[in-house]
Design brief:
The structure is a single chain. By secondary structure, this protein is an alpha+beta fold. The protein has helices spanning about 1-10, 15-25, 25-40, 80-85, and strands spanning about 15, 45-50, 55-65. The chain has one domain (about 1-65): Arc Repressor Mutant, subunit A. A three-stranded antiparallel beta sheet has the order 1-3-2. The mean pLDDT is about 85.
């Protein structure tokens, strides 16, 4: 489990298949360990469906609990206070 946590700390949110490929663990082992880590509160996981070149890929997306993803680049929406003060 320590290997998975280290990988997620270093690389951010990843799919279970990516974690398995990077750590050398089987996909079944990664899913089992992610379930245990999620129950303990160390990671946050959710089931996702992605389409890559028209191919449906289902898996588990996970990230370390308490980590906040970087905001996406680009223009940010106006906030309520900015609209009211205008």
């Amino acid at each position: 489990m320590k290997t998975i946590l280290e990988y997620l700390n270093k690389n951010g949110e990843k799919m279970d298949i990516d974690i398995a490929a990077a750590t050398g663990l089987s996909l079944a082992a990664v899913k089992s360990k992610l379930r245990d880590l999620s129950l303990s509160g160390a990671v946050i996981s959710c089931n996702v469906t992605r389409f890559v070149e028209g191919v449906k890929i289902e898996g588990i997306s996970s990230r370390v609990s308490g980590s906040i993803p970087q905001p996406s680049p680009g223009r940010k929406p106006k906030t309520e206070t900015a609209i009211e003060s205008s």
